[in-house]
Write a structure and sequence with these properties.
Layout lengths: L2 H12 L9 H13 L2 H5 L3 E11 L13 E12 L4 E10 L9 E9 L2 E6 L2 E4 L2 H10 L4 H9 L4 E8 L2 E7 L5 E7 L5 E10 L3 E17 L6 E12 L2 E12 L10 H4 L11 E6 L2 E5 L5 E5 L4 E4 L5 H14 L5 E5 L5 H4 L2 H6 L3 E5 L3 H9 L8 H4 L5 E5 L5 E4 L4 E6 L10 E5 L4 E4 L10 H14 L5 E4 L5 E2 H12 L4
Parallel strand pairs: 17-18, 18-19, 19-20, 24-25
Antiparallel strand pairs: 1-2, 1-13, 2-3, 3-4, 4-5, 5-6, 7-8, 8-9, 9-10, 10-11, 11-12, 12-13, 14-15, 15-16, 16-17, 21-22, 22-23, 23-24, 25-26
Length: 495
């Protein structure tokens, strides 16, 4: 009989588990602590320093909705956790392995939590993150074996619902603040194998976040004790069906920590609150450039209806854009929203426009993706579509064919940008009478996406489009000569 089975049997008879646990659920947690090293050693672990290397993945930025996610290679990963003071800080160096239009580059990330203060280093400054980020980072502190066992052993937590799933012993852990975790314990080794919790993602809705612990090995002695702890050397985290990170690490329990208090400028600041600005520029009669912040939209007027190109970035931005559209044209209905591509920062407003009963136009590669997005549950945070459910009405661009909207006076043509290295199903919109091209991510004047510029120029030339003005979703009004200059830069000096 396995040790956890013996403990459960004794508990059921005497109402006292092995080691004095009052319930079978707590007995499983105490047994997990013993498997790690000892119950006493785990209880007296107040800090962790976890170091290593790995990968982080760019969620919502794959070339097509079903493709693998692009990733960063990570070096100098260093996570310091102070359980007693509810503080942690992560530092890591990331190197891009995917084509962004810029050379492969390294970026140091530093961010953390100090009590209820979440903060992010941005160059020479540190900013305080929103409250919802702080709540998520508090939960992250327990996505390791020591953290989740300490939380389960805390007298303010509730451990319940012991069950077996796929050879694992499973319990639910409810923290005093109401956050729920699920702890999985390997039926053979008695070691924690996974922690899972629910979270909210603006694009994906209610999601499960799960971190897997693998390749356990002994680590150094604990403080003045001779006990050596057995801890994982591999951490893998999934969000929904997507792998978002994987690390190979070594762990130092109760090792020395840096000062993990939040920087003064972050602690003294109020939690950041997203603000939305929508500025309007009429670039041609009946064509408005709706700008502000990093992601823009374009409104096009037809005889009997309006068309919006792009509902990007967030629900808040899309709602603000829709409000501006109504101010500009209160007596004409908005009927279509053209989505350039599926990337999360360009599709974050899709559920919002569906809640308004609008027709979504996108490439056929994105149909099932948007069907899934619209069908997802948003109960943790109710978004516009959860509050006002509506069916998805979608029309798609097929292959490299042309999709066209016209009223006889104005024509809007939609094309796929072929051979684009950024996204397989990316679209551009063209107003032939005005000679205006609308595009996203293919050419961004304020960034260094030169390789994409060359691809866009080739598509314009192959289609025989006569373009004078470019309205990028990122950047500002440009001319064809700006695109040609960027393309020349991408090609480099002539041989």
């Amino acid at each position: 009989m396995r040790r956890w089975q013996r403990c459960l049997f004794v508990s059921s008879l005497l109402f006292v588990g092995c080691g004095g646990a009052a319930t079978p659920e707590l007995q499983l947690v105490e047994d997990a602590a013993e498997a790690i090293g000892s119950l006493r050693a785990v209880r007296e672990t107040t800090t962790l320093v976890i170091e290593g290397q790995g990968r982080t993945y760019r969620l919502g930025q794959n070339k097509s909705p079903r493709a693998d996610l692009p990733y960063y290679e990570v070096e100098n990963y260093r996570l310091q956790i102070d359980f007693a003071n509810k503080r942690w800080r992560l530092r890591q160096d990331r190197t891009s392995t995917f084509l962004t239009g810029s050379p492969v580059y390294g970026v140091r990330q530093i961010y953390g939590l100090d009590g209820d203060v979440a903060y992010d280093a941005q160059g020479e400054h540190t900013v305080r993150a929103p409250e919802r980020v702080a709540a998520g980072r508090w939960a992250e502190m327990y996505f390791n074996p020591i953290g989740i066992v300490l939380l389960a052993l805390d007298e303010t937590s509730t451990v319940s619902n012991l069950r077996e799933e796929e050879g694992q012993q499973v319990v639910d852990v409810a923290a005093a603040n109401g956050t729920w975790f699920t702890l999985f314990v390997d039926g053979e080794t008695g070691l924690p194998s996974k922690v899972m919790s629910s979270a909210y993602h603006p694009n994906l809705g209610d999601v499960a976040i799960e971190t897997f612990f693998e390749d356990y090995a002994e680590t150094g002695g604990l403080g003045g004790f001779q006990t050596r702890l057995t801890l994982p050397r591999s951490y893998t985290t999934n969000l929904d069906r997507f792998r978002v990170s994987e690390y190979r690490v070594s762990t130092n329990p109760n090792g020395p920590l840096d000062d993990l208090t939040a920087p003064a400028d972050a602690r003294s600041a109020a939690p950041s609150v997203a603000t939305v600005t929508v500025e309007v520029e009429e670039v041609a009669s009946g064509v408005w450039y709706l700008t502000g912040q990093s992601h823009h939209s374009v409104l096009v007027e037809f005889e009997e209806y309006l068309v919006l190109v792009e509902a990007p970035y967030s629900e808040a931005r899309t709602l603000a854009v829709l409000a501006r559209v109504r101010e500009l044209q209160p007596d004409k209905p908005l009927q279509y929203v053209i989505n350039t591509h599926h990337h999360f920062d360009h599709s974050a407003g899709i559920r919002t426009v569906v809640s308004e009963g609008l027709t979504v136009v996108t490439h056929e590669l994105n149909r099932s993706f948007f069907q899934d997005i619209v069908a997802r549950q948003h109960s943790i945070v109710q978004d516009a579509l959860a509050r006002n459910p509506q069916p998805l009405t979608i029309e798609t661009v097929t292959g490299d064919e042309t999709y066209e909207l016209t009223d006889g006076r104005r024509t809007l043509q939609i094309y796929r940008i072929g051979d684009d290295p950024h996204c397989d199903g990316i679209l551009m919109a063209y107003l032939p009478r005005e000679r205006i091209l609308i595009e996203a991510d293919a050419y961004s004047p304020t960034s260094r996406e030169a390789p994409f510029a060359e691809v866009l120029l080739r598509n314009i030339e192959d289609r025989g489009l006569r373009v004078d003005t470019i309205l990028p979703i990122h950047g500002g009004v440009s001319g064809l000569e700006d695109l040609e200059s960027a393309a020349r830069t991408a090609r480099g000096p002539a041989d």
